[in-house]
Design goal:
Blueprint (H helix, E strand, L loop, with lengths): L1 H6 L1 H8 L15 H16 L1 H10 L1 H28 L7 H30 L3
Helix pairs in contact: 2-3, 4-5, 5-6
Length: 127
């Protein structure tokens, strides 16, 4: 997350693939990065499916907490970003957009914190 914020990965992906007509996007070529991130997420899940299922079976409580954190993170990073695409008009960002960005960043940080909590809780659980 921090890496993406610091070096603007999803903005670079959008710029790089803006001429690829078949990639879905929002008005103004926004959101092209979503398809690329989705492919990366599916590959990651497929590669790590077996270890993740093992963790879920052994530690269902921690897994639920982690999934909740992931849902908060995705709600902030994806859903709120999409809402932001609709809030930026031709006149530029207004108060509603800045409120959206605040909620987006809060949800991302809350989600990351909940996921970290579940990992720390798992580490403190005796075998």
């Amino acid at each position: 997350m921090s890496l993406d914020e610091n070096i603007s990965i999803h903005e670079r992906i959008t710029y790089r693939y803006q001429d690829v007509e078949w990639l879905p996007r929002f008005q103004g070529n926004h959101g092209i990065w979503i398809s690329v991130y989705l492919v990366i997420a599916v590959i990651f899940l497929l590669v790590n499916l077996k270890p993740m299922l093992t963790l879920i079976k052994q530690y269902p409580h921690n897994a639920r907490i982690f999934v909740l954190g992931g849902a908060l993170f995705v709600a902030g990073g994806l859903l709120m970003e999409i809402i932001g695409y609709y809030l930026v008009g031709e006149e530029g960002p207004g108060l509603a957009y800045y409120l959206e960005v605040t909620i987006e960043e809060f949800l991302e940080m809350a989600g990351a914190s909940v996921m970290l909590y579940s990992i720390l809780f798992l580490r403190s659980t005796p075998d």
